[in-house]
Amino acid sequence: MKVYCLAVAHQTGQKATVLAAEYELSQFSFFERGSVKEFMAFFTAPPTKDQLLHWIWLLREWRIQLAQRTLKWECDELDLIIETRLNSRACSEDMLADKVWPDSTLEFMLPYVIPDEVGLTLRDLMKPPTDVMDLEMLACRWEALENLLEPLRHSGQYVPRVERVQQQYTDKFMAVAAVFDKQGPYGHDNLGVPVIVSADIHNPVSTPAGYSAAPRAESVFSDRGLTGSSGGKVEIEGKNMNRVEGGMEVLSRWL
To answer: Which top-rank group of organisms is this from (predicted)?
Structure first.
């Protein structure tokens, strides 16, 4: 990845000497691997409503594929990360859950639970909801947090600080829209799943069959010893849509 607007200069008096320009960000030691995406966010316009709806669809489909273990490589890598952390000397039985699962470990997991097209970082997800967020943004972050928490729940683990943030998004969504799937099913720990009241959710056309998180994970985490060959296959199928009163549509299937 190259940023052509990035230049590092040293100024002596009135003369400035360019020390580096058009370099890969990862070559600079002051850029952590996980922060490159955050840095690039400064040069990216906020996601549009259509993009957010696209991300929501991708996140749900990805979660289904993980639950069905269709994404075998990603599931194996997640299992490895969780098992390695639980067996680490840094963990003990009396350790608080938030200490067992620090942000650094959650960063390792992120490429395997969130598709590359979804432009959200862990820092984004851990920010509490604000009054300026619309329904699509609230729901998108809720879905991304669910993707992050789901593999841990399947392993009998929980991360209180992340679940608290997700609950904040649940409460905010209810306050803004008061639209939830009252028929159920509900999420873990009685967290309701927000329903997007929009007829614009559609199947993505840019996600190719065979897409895998492997290339991104290898490029981001290769220096941390989390590498592997991609083998996950995504076979995305369109979901049936139910039309309800007022022309609004909701997905007929909820996790």
So the answer is: Eukaryota
